[in-house]
Specification:
alpha+beta; 4-stranded mixed β-sheet
């Protein structure tokens, strides 16, 4: 297993940078104030494009390989018992979910998973005593692995192979920036298969 990257903090999920191929407008003609005539915009088309660009929250399946697995640690956040002595380790991966059609629109969102096996409590006083989200995601990944493979996830090799090659379902929530955040990971159920046994 490769050694983690020495980053001061885990990467932040940011949208791709603007295409700067046309950033230099110095040679393009500009309208004067007198030439601005109050052109109207196609609001209906924008609304349709918004629907196409904004994938709805819910369950998305992953059945293809994702090859973006990364290991990083935080040197400013170290506690006894951490996986690495350098600081809290974070594992992350991202990739396109399987295509899903909702209301006639096909979506294939880019999703991110980030987790840490190093225990930390939530910093928000409202959640006093609870583990933070990155540790909760680690626990959820372990539970999904157990449900699929019938054994505990034991090490980084298990984790990397599962996140990259595994087939699973990701439950998402829409954030304030209209981007999907992964909240849960679980076994992908086959048609007719029940996630929970029927009560007697």
């Amino acid at each position: 297993m490769a050694q983690p990257n020495r980053n001061q903090a885990p990467p932040v999920d940011l949208p791709p940078a603007f295409d700067d191929a046309h950033a230099d407008d110095s040679e393009n003609p500009r309208l004067s104030q007198g030439q601005i005539t109050g052109k109207t915009f196609d609001t209906g088309r924008r609304q349709e494009r918004h629907k196409e660009m904004t994938a709805p929250p819910g369950d998305y399946t992953k059945s293809t390989r994702w090859d973006t697995f990364e290991i990083r640690w935080r040197e400013d956040d170290s506690q006894p018992g951490d996986t690495y002595p350098q600081g809290r380790v974070t594992y992350s991966i991202s990739g396109k979910a399987d295509k899903k059609t909702v209301n006639g629109i096909e979506y294939e969102p880019l999703l991110f998973i980030r987790l840490s096996p190093d225990e930390r409590h939530h910093q928000n006083p409202s959640f006093k005593g609870e583990m933070d989200f990155q540790y909760k995601m680690y626990d959820r990944v372990c539970e999904a692995f157990l449900a699929i493979h019938g054994r505990e996830l034991k090490n980084e090799d298990d984790l990397k192979l599962f996140l990259e090659e595994g087939e699973y379902t990701l439950n998402t929530m829409l954030g304030s920036d209209d981007r999907l955040g992964v909240m849960h990971i679980k076994k992908t159920m086959k048609p007719g298969e029940r996630r929970y046994p029927r009560r007697a």
